[in-house]
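Key result, reporting period 2: structure in, sequence out.
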């Protein structure tokens, strides 16, 4: 069971772990030990996380969600399988916590009268500079 916060926990039945050989250093062990961990979590079938959060995860992390609707995370940082497993769980926890936070809505504001005047003055100044570059001939 993975505990995200006081209200959200994900049971182990919803998570599928697969192990494979990882890349990188490892000496003789690299060719015989399955230390890479890949975590599959079925977003569509999960009942432990509210629908709006699952939708947010699906939209924010679309590159990590496969065609079956499963979120796929992998880790091969360490040479030890249990550390990579813990890293996958930590990545999942971070994704869900990130999705829990809602963006602050922007309050629409009007520009002040002084800022509008400054903008117009700046445009007039720029226009005069460009007008001064033109050569004028009287024929």
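The corresponding designed sequence is given below.
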């Amino acid at each position: 069971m993975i505990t995200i916060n006081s209200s959200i926990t994900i049971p182990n039945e919803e998570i599928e772990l697969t192990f494979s050989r990882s890349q990188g250093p490892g000496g003789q062990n690299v060719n015989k030990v399955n230390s890479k961990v890949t975590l599959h979590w079925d977003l569509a079938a999960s009942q432990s996380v509210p629908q709006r959060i699952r939708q947010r995860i699906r939209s924010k992390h679309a590159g990590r969600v496969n065609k079956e609707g499963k979120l796929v995370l992998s880790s091969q940082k360490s040479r030890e399988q249990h550390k990579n497993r813990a890293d996958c769980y930590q990545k999942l926890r971070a994704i869900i916590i990130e999705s829990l936070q809602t963006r602050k809505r922007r309050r629409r504001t009007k520009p002040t009268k002084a800022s509008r005047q400054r903008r117009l003055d700046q445009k007039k100044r720029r226009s005069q500079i460009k007008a001064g570059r033109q050569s004028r001939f009287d024929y």
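The chain has one domain: 2-100. The first strand starts at residue 2 and ends at 3. This case is discussed further under Risks and Mitigation.
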